[in-house]
Amino acid sequence: MTVPPWGRIAVGTPEPVFEPRPPGPYAFDHPDTACDGWSTDRFALRLASVRGSGHRYYGRPRQDAARATAHPGTGSVVFAVADGVSSAAEAEYGATEACRAAVERLLHLLEAGPGPLDLASVVTHAAERLRELARWRLQSADPAPAEVAGLYATTLVAGAVRPGPEGARVELCRVGDSGAWLLDRAEGGYLPLFTAKNAPEAVVVSQTVSPLPRVPDQLEQLTAQLAAPDLLLVGTDGFGDPLGDGDGQVGAHFTRALATPPPPLGFGHLLDFSRETFDDDRTLLAVWPEAGPR
Question: Is residue 209 part of a domain?
């Protein structure tokens, strides 16, 4: 059988082939697939967000989101990745607004001068944006936390890659179960930067998520160095679950393809692989610690 040039890449046993349903008349701000890619003098960035097969089949919108930009004054790359919680009525809007608010706050912090980023304020700002959205949506001056979550609950990973005299430094925070990894392009190993959602030996897989608008008392945050041959990956569990510990076919699929920055459309095609049982929305952001070809 001839595979179309842009047909989905099968990794292991693929999913059934079908034509996606439209996501609804009011989901036009959340297209099936979004991708972006560019380079600065120090870094190359690619990101993509694709609607999972479950949402394509049932005609639901993509509930993941991602935003990224470069800060000219510091040469930093700033980003946010979010996964709207499926039980929230308008999760796609929650994910989008959380990313926008996080990137806005990170840019403001970089403008304020050197020093560690106040990542707790990034999360607080994103949570407040969701409350503002709920006030408008419900026409209520003070919606209850449960009402905000019922509309816009979302995970969030946000941060920046900042150049420095000792190399690039990653500063990250997260709320919920999205993840981040360092991929060793030379050896092919994936180092998780946050605690895995479920331990490999777990008998029962937990689906519990504690998302925004709740702001945790102890925010998960970290710093790490980023130098070749590593690259930074930030993704939702639609990417992290099939990746697992990175030793399987999905890990090999990305290790081969991410040795150098692919074209943005190629990056989106790479992320939209087909593998049975993994039908969630997928979002992935990658930062290489070197500029792409000019």
Answer: yes
Whether the Cβ atoms of residue 5 and residue 258 lie closer than 8 Å to each other: no
Give the mean pLDDT of 23-42.
94
Say what the pLDDT of residue 170 is: 98
Question: Which strands form 220-226's sheet, in the order they lie side by side?
Answer: 64-71, 76-83, 156-162, 168-175, 220-226
Query: Strand 33-39's sheet: what is its strand order?
Result: 33-39, 44-50, 282-288, 230-235, 179-184, 190-192
Give residue 41's domain range: 33-288
Residue 24 lies in a domain: no
pLDDT at residue 203, rounded to an integer: 44
Determine the distance from the C-alpha atom of residue 81 to the mean position of all C-alpha atoms in its chain, rounded to a whole number: 3
Q: What is the DSSP letter of 10?
A: B
Spell out the alpha helix ranges (H) of 11-90: 53-58
The tally of domains found in the chain comes to: 1
User: At 241, which CATH number?
Assistant: 3.60.40.10
Q: How many CB atoms lie within 10 A of CB 290?
A: 15
- Which tokens hold the place of 240? 């992290």
pLDDT score, position 113? 84
Strand partners, 173: 158, 221
